[in-house]
Specification:
This protein has two helices and three strands. The chain is an alpha+beta fold. It has one domain. The radius of gyration is 12 Å and the shape is flat.
């Protein structure tokens, strides 16, 4: 997933969207960069980044808080 983007920098936008039946898609600067099919990776990704034990700086940044 991370090889699909150039890393976080100020002013750049990325999003990760899960679509059932398709998978988890990374969009970077308005361009779809890659999709990982299935729900297993999606569950791990969200649990790690915004779950109960996620590092607060990561979850706040991803959620825009």
């Amino acid at each position: 997933m991370y090889r699909c983007w150039d890393g976080p920098r100020s002013g750049l936008r990325s999003s990760v969207t899960y679509v059932p039946g398709k998978g988890l898609t990374l969009t970077y600067q308005g361009e779809e960069r890659g999709t990982i099919s299935g729900s297993t990776f999606m569950q791990m990704y969200y649990r790690y980044n915004v779950g109960e034990k996620a590092p607060k700086n990561i979850s706040r940044g991803l959620l825009g808080l």
